[in-house]
Amino acid sequence: MTTDADRRTEGVEGVLDAITDTVASARSVPMSASVLVNRAELLELVDQVREVLPGQLAEADTVLASADAQRAGARAEADAIVSGARAEAQRTVADALAEAEHTVADAQQDAERTVSDAHAQAEATLADARARADEMVLAQQVVIDADEHAARIVRKAEGEATRLRREADDYCERTLADLEIDLGNALTQVQAGRTRLAGRLGE
């Protein structure tokens, strides 16, 4: 004979299976689609559902709360990683730009100083040539030679200034290329962090 202890099942799904088995195995009513079931037995199963359901709902709420907490923690960790990478990238960009601007400013000053010195030297050469030309019979030729010499000095100075500017531009290009590599490494770290977090969320 089946007792209440024998009929008690585990969980809502088990109780529902028991109800299904009870109905499926019940004796059919002749000339009808109805069946005869034991009222007390069926009511006992319903009572078991009422007993088990609140506990399982509470357990489900606990699981959901834990999942939400883990998701919030993962999101906070991801935000911290992204924020740190963004701050590091901004510092790297700022440092690289500051260094590039300083280099360009130094090169510009050197170029201007070189051109200024060349002009001063050219003017001194012309002044000296004119002074000597006044004392020489071939004053015109002396002035022409002095002008040509001064022009060569200016061209040389301008070429040196152009070279300094080009070197400064090359240095800035290399600095920005290094910056691009650093930013790529930072992005790789962020992507690796996101992959680790995605792996945790998938567990």
List keywords for this structure.
mainly alpha; 2 strands; disordered N terminus
Layout: helices, strands, pairs:
Elements lengths: L3 H4 L3 H15 L1 E2 L6 E2 L2 H96 L4 H64 L1
Antiparallel strand pairs: 1-2
Describe the structure.
With 203 residues, the protein is mainly α. The protein has one domain (4-202). It has helices spanning 4-7, 11-25, 39-134, 139-202; strands spanning 27-28, 35-36. A hairpin with a 6-residue loop joins strand 1 (27-28) and strand 2 (35-36). Helix 2 runs antiparallel to helix 3 (39-134). The longest helix has 96 residues, at 39-134. The two termini are 47 Å apart. The relative contact order is 0.09.
Beta-strand content: under 5%
Sheet having the most strands: 2 strands, antiparallel
What's the Cα radius of gyration?
A: 46 Å
Mean pLDDT: 77
Give the ordered list of helices and strands. HHEEHH
Name the overall outline.
rod-shaped
Oligomer: single chain
Total count of helical runs of at least 4 residues: 4
Quick description:
It is built from four helices and two strands, in the order ααββαα. The protein has 203 residues and is mainly alpha-helical.
